[in-house]
Structure formats: C-alpha cells, structure tokens
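fyi for ur records
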Amino acid sequence: MPEVVEPMLHDLQERGLSCAPHVVSRLVAELHGDEESIREVVARLAPAQRGGLHSLPTPLPLVPAIARAFHDLLLPARDRDLLLAVSVCLDDDLDPLVEFDGRSALEIAAAPVGRHLIVRAGRARMVDPRLAIWIRSRTDPAVIGAVHDRLSAIFAARGDRVSADWHRARASVDRDPAAAAELTRIARELSEAGYPDRALLLAREATEHAEGVALDEALLVAGASAVGAGFVVEASARLGRLFSGGAERYRLQGLAGLLTARAHLHGAVPEVDPGTLRPRSDDPEDWYSWTRAAALAAVLCAERSDRVGMRSWLDALREGAARVGAERTLRDPVVALSWLIAGERDVDDVAGSGPVSGRMLRAIRAAVAGEVDRGLRILRAADDTTEGETDPLVAGFEFSPVVQAYRSVVEALLLVWRGDLGPAREHLSHAALHLPVAMPFAGLGVVLLRRLDLAVFGDLGPIARALTAALPAAVKIDRLIDRGIRSYLAGDFDDAAASVELWLDLGAPQTTMSVPGLDEVALTWEVGTRAPGIVAPPDLILAHELRMRIAKTTEGRWRTERDEVRASARTLRSPFSRARVEAMIGAQCAIRDERVAARSHLRSAQRLFELSGAAAWAESVERRLTRLDIEEGRRTSGADPLAACRHAWSLLLTAREVEVAMLAVDGAANRDIAQALGVSVRTVEVHLGRVFGKLDVRRRVELTALAHRTNQHL
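which gave:
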C-alpha cells in the first residue's frame, strides 16, 4: 500500500490537492487504484473530507474518468438490477443476491454480468468498485428505490432485521420511524465493535427517519461513530444538535465526544464551567456520563498543556466519581494519566483498565521510569488480551480507529525513546495510511513523523506533508525546529542556529512528550531547561544535559569535561541519543584541532546513527569526516586550510588582528602568539578583544567555529 499511496500523495500535493493519507488509502481501494479517478474525486471533495475530518460522500461522485471507463457498457435490465443490488447492499453475502436475481451462482458467473463480479466462497463483489459509483449515478432514483424495496422484502423473509430496515428506509420517500430504531441499535453495536464507518452509515440514515427522543439517540450514535472514525467536523455538527433542545440523557452521553471533536478542531478544550453541565436529575447513568466527560476533558487539556483547564475538569471528575463510586476505576487512573501527560513524571502508581486509562498509562509510566522495553511489551500485549476489555475512560471506543491511533502514536514514541528511529518511522507511516494519527495528543503524531522523516531522509516525505496540511488550522505545531534540523543536517549551521534561537525567543514551544529536537546549536539554552514539564525517559534527559555541557564548556575545562561527558555517554542505551553526544564531542575536538579524537568520536556517532536508522544524521557525520580529511590534506601539502576565511576577515580586521585571530584559531595560546609576533601578552589580549567585538563572538571556541564555517561557506 505505501508504494501506491505515497506517490499519489506527492502528485496530489503538487496539484494543490493535499489529502490525508488514510483518506487517499480509502480512495485507492474504492477507485480501483486508478490515479486519474482519484485526482478527479479528490478535487470534488470538501476540504474537511480531504483532511479526514468528515466522512466521504456515499456514493463517491461520478467524475469524467469513471464515466469514460464505462461509457460503452450496455447492460440488460436484469444484469443492471443485479449490479445495482450488489452496490447498495450492506455486505457482500451472495445468497440474498441470488434470491434477488433468480439465477444460480454458477449461472451468474457464466453470464455476461459475471465479467464484472467476483463470485467466490459465498460472497459477491465488483471486480472494479468504480462500477458501483457509475451504475448508481446513472440509474433513475425510482429504479434504485425499487431495488431497495425488493431487497427489503428478501431480507425480512430471511430474518435479517437490520438489512431489511436499511433497504426499507432507503426505499421510502417519507419518514419511516419504525426502521430508525433498529438502525440506531445496530449502528451502536457496530461502533462499539470498531466499525465506525458502517455505524455512521446506518445512524446517519436513522437520523433521516427518527423523530423526538429517537432522533436524539440517532444523532448521539452518529456523532459518536464520527468521533471514533476521526470525523470531528461531522461529529461536532451532529452532537452539537443535541445541545439545542435534545434530551438531557443523550446530551450528557454525547458530551465527551463533543469535547473531543471541538478540542481537535479549535486547538483547545472549550472554555466552559463543568458545573453548568451537571445533570439536573439524580439518575446514576446521567452522573456517570458527566463524570466520564469530565475525565476525558481533563486528559484533553493535559495534552494541550492547559493545566488550569485540566485542574477544573479534574475537580469535576472527583465530584462525579464520588457520587457514582468510580474513584478507583475512573478517577485515580485518569488523574495519574492527566498529570503524567502534563509533564509530572512522579505520578501515583495506580492501576487502570482498558487500552487507554490502563495500558497506555502503564506503558508511558514504565518508559518514563527508564523501562522503555517494558512499556513496549505492555502496549503489544494488548494484541491478544483486549477482546472484551472495557475502558472506563473510552467505553464503547476501545476498538475505534481513534483509540488505535493513540496506541500507534505511543508505540512510535516509545520506539523513538529507545533509539529505533527507522522502525518508529515505518510503524507510524503505516499507521497513518489507515488511522487518524493526527488526533492523539494534540497532533503529536504529526510532529513525530516530521522529525522521523528529517532524521531518516533529511527532509519531509509525502505522508508527513499530507498530515501537516490536513491538520485543522487551530492545531499549531512548531516548524522552526524542523527547519533547524533540516539546515543542520545539510551543513547550514548558521541557518540552523538562527532557527533555534528564534524558537527560544518565542518561548521554546514543544510537545510535553519529548521528540527529537536540535540543541546542538542552542548556545543560549541553559543546562536543565528541557527537563521540567517534559515527559521523557532518564536516557533522553541525561543526553540533553550532556550536549549542553559540551556546548557550554570553557577552554580551560574542556579536557576534564570531555572525559566526564564521554564516560556518562557510555551509559546511554539509546543509540540515537548517544550518537548525538558523540557527534558533538567529535565536532568540539575538531574545533580544538584534536583530529585523532575527533575522527574516533565522529565514526562512533556515524555507526550509532546507522544503527538507529537515522540515515540523514549518519550522512551529516560522514560529510564532517570528509571535511576533516580534506583539511588534513591541505595541512600536509603546506596549503593554508583557512585561506578563504583569512581573506574574508581581512575586510573587517586590521592586518595584525587577522594574524592574532588566525593563530588563535590554530590553537596557539596567548603567550605563544605574543612570542611569535614579538609583542606583549597584554597586546595580544587587546587584539583578541577587538576581534571578538568585530566578529560578535565571546570565546575562542566560538571564534574557531566561526572560522571553519566561514571557510566552508566561502
């Protein structure tokens, strides 16, 4: 699938028609992989549909490419009706279709219509699914209604109440309230079983026929199904209707879904006093719905670093949990999960149940405690044990695409924390083709895939670009660090430093869940600034502190600091984290002309980057090693290795200042420079002070780094 979808995503982006990866995957399946049909259908979709925020139209629009594919197809009425029946049935069971047509399965397969059907193992489906779009669009509505009517009678006789009501509702030109109740019931079951698309189809039809309280329930199920699929625009619209006159019970049941949808759309949980939404009755079910909505809102606030809102909703959670007796099952795990996501690593060791308030909490907590492998085992154990497992926080959504997306994002994050960037990218890219991975943790999946693409390729791939374009406008992700990483890996250190400095000036916005950043060039970042409020295992925190120590080390402390940092780096278990430390040690050694040590550390970094799958970082180190070899060749040949820098600086400095500066860059001490030039040490200090001022550097290390960058660029 990636080999088909990724080129399609790139082509659509080139045409200004960016589309969410999981939407394109769906279109590839429904349009037989035909590129022209996909392009034309995408062009007809609304922006929310392209972004995966609203369900696709049913059927998909008949575009010229589909019309051309079947322009010469002539069908007898009987064959046309059979194909139409196949296209409108809820499933592909063959027996009702045989009864509808009157021919046996063998006769259908042998007839001309058999060329368009795959009949196998009691199932029947279109060879080319585009034919279903063509035939439904080219058939008179009255004929379609008649086919639905015939199918309704067949399914009623077979005892299939759901299909019978579905076809009866589709055939009816008037409201059919009797059919709505059964459609709503089955839609709820399908939604809870992890089939939100089918559930939404049925519930949406139910809303067209239901009245009164039955309509409220149909809207609730349609909205809940839409949330589970990630269709937050549609969910917001349908659940919002409940708050303009709907029954209180269904309003309270839909509150959690509405808060989820609007938080993703608007970038923040709606600012509302939880108390104004309290149940007006004493019904325990109403209070439990309100309590669960408060719990979910608290987690959503934590994801968005909104501690004020989180505390308000947690207070409501405590009130409601005490009233319905859900302290251990709902309150305790949600309080722990909220504070953990908000950046408090020392949370209470409480147990939860289900894929979110249970497994996800335990997995992240294990990783933050330094046991990343155990965290991954906890997540993966869910494959065999989640059947029948209820999660108090997301009850009814355990198998939904959104909850699966949460799990996929957490698994990719833990792989990154372990240092396996290549596998993390593969896992998250594959998940993005099927799941709404942009929803969890306020867009963390998008940020993570962008950083992984940069680490592996040095640039953003089509899936990451498509995910970014599909985000609602209110969801903000930081792009300065992405630009900085891209520039750094390409060797443009000045642009990388400028991007990071601007990011720091803007308050260093970042996700609470630690993702790979760029502190290699953040010279004004104090040691320890990343730790507070950041969720990360000890390995990543230590690696950041070591990189900061390297960047801040003075000339006099270099050898001691280098040895201490090198010893600490050996304790890092993440190959990617250790590689970045090794690369920085190597770069600082090169600046100080410790060439043997520089090569040793850079080669270690290169091997570790390759081990982690961070190919772009490995290539960046390879280029540094090549530059070291070139400079060494110039030295042995007697050539001036910094000739371009010497010429550039002569335009800014006096001749004597250039001499002093170049000797300092070459590693000579002040006393040695004074002796070489026949001046006093004090005179050398004065000249160096002027050089520092004119070149806007503060230390010899910065002067040396500037010299090599200047020489490299010129």
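Residues 538-636 form one domain. thats all i got for now
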